[in-house]
Amino acid sequence: MNERPSIHIVGGGLAGAEAAWQIAARGLPVALHEMRPARMTDAHKTERLAELVCSNSFRSDDKEQSAIGLLHEEMRRLGSLIMRAADANQVPAGGALAVDRDGFAGAITAALEAHPRITIHREEIAGLPPDDWDSVIVATGPLTSPALADAIRSLTGEDSLAFFDAIAPIVYRESIDLSVAWFQSRYDKAGPGGSGADYINCPMTREQYAAFVAEVLAADKTAFHEWETSTPYFDGCLPIEIMAARGPETLRHGPMKPFGLTNPHDPQTKAYAVVQLRQDNRLGTLFNMVGFQTKLKHAEQVRIFRTIPGLEMAEFARLGGLHRNTFLNSPKLLDDTLRLKVMPRLRFAGQITGCEGYVESAAIGLLAARFAAQLGESLAPPPPTTAHGALLAHITGGHMQTIDAGPGSFQPMNINFGLFPPLAQAPTRDEQGQRLRGTQKTIAKKRALCRRALADLDRWIADGSHRVAAE
After folding, report:
1. pTM for the structure as a whole
2. Can you spell out the DSSP letters for 74-119?
């Protein structure tokens, strides 16, 4: 019996890596094509597969009250390589799941290189994949090479949408003044691998905050290229200077919010604003400035960020930056199994489809792989009540959008409870029969959505079409 031809995956980021693993786990051969290191991007620094170039955080790991935590749990139940590597390389981050970047990417690269059904090709696919590739998953991410992006644009007749993604600075831990700053998670919340004191907090008075905002607004910014001038930002990853321009209080109600924190150096005084730094590597030697993505010039970043109390002597392992991302008008171009309607041998996965976030990208890679691995049989999409199904519905049009979504209406989206179908009946009373009110009602609703999702996912898994090949 002849072996089935390889399924080709273009792109070795989180979506492509997860897709390769899922297909190989089903007994099928995979050819994974990654252009690095032959052709590097503006954001990547290594040739490792699944390299994290922005935050090391996978966000909340709470599977009972958080949409992203629910997605984590669904992926674990679906045999995700990305989640396996994340769990094995976690670092303290309060209620979030954050990972050691190098350990995470190294673990995934090693797993894929060692798999007997996966062949890795270090080459750029400069244009549409060859005609004799019967099944292809394009998982090139937001930094798709220009040649491939132009070929897709010509094929579809649709201009890809674009937005900016940003990188926050990283500070050496030893250069932070802990006689001013302190360790604490917001509301002392402990997460996976954490203690409840996982962030370094730098407090600001009202006067210090006002001066900081004024400096950010007046600072020199890196000039936009001509092709960048009409590109909108993604609201989930705004540069600090854009937030500051939206109003003087925007930053202190965003990444610099002071709530849930008490300064042990001065417990009686509430900070007006707080800059948080999150551990960025397993050794705890590097800390990421949370939410401080920026297009300020590097010299300006050093000057202004050293005005933050506790960071006066800060040394930076990396300064912030900004790069352009592209994504498809997916509700119009893709079917409900992520195939390109005008060329069904091509599937798309990851951020190029219009999902936002590392975990979401990997989840869509997981789904694209399972659709592609069905050997001609149809696989029903996961129920829209699941995190995977809700995210897929956002991308492909699904139950909440029309197929005529245009460039002005379709935007990248993180997983959130707003994408889920409503409960048939929202909970109104607790287990003791007491009426739920306010926050209690919101918490109970989130828990009910998560319970429903996991129950529906388990039924989807149990339908018999998700078997993993024996080694």
Report:
1. 0.81
2. HHHHTT-HHHHHHHHTEE--TTEEEE-HHHHHHHHHHHHHH-TTEE
- Look up residue 434 and give its two tokens: 């007491």
pLDDT (tens digit, 9 = 90+) per residue, 242-256? 999 999 999 999 999
| Fold category of 166-323 in CATH | Elongation Factor Tu (Ef-tu); domain 3 (2.40.30)
Of the candidate CATH numbers 3.40.50.11810, 3.50.50.60, 1.20.1250.20, 2.120.10.30, the domain formed by 7-160+328-461 belongs to 3.50.50.60
Q: Which two tokens stand for residue 199?
A: 């962030």
Ranges of each domain in the chain: 7-160+328-461, 166-323
Question: At what angle are helices 101-114 and 81-88 packed, to 10 degrees?
Answer: 140
Predicted confidence (pLDDT) at residue 454 exceeds the cutoff of 90: yes
Which of residues 167 and 133 earns the better pLDDT score? 133
**pLDDT of res. 214:** 98
For the chain, the C-alpha Rg in angstroms (whole number) is: 23
Q: Is the confidence at residue 402, as pLDDT, over 70?
A: no
HEC sequence for 137-192: EECCHHHCCHHHHHHHHHHHCCCCEEEEEEECCEEEHHHCCCCCCEECCHHHCCCC
CA 5 to chain centre: 31
Q: Cα 25 vs. chain centroid, distance in angstroms?
A: 24
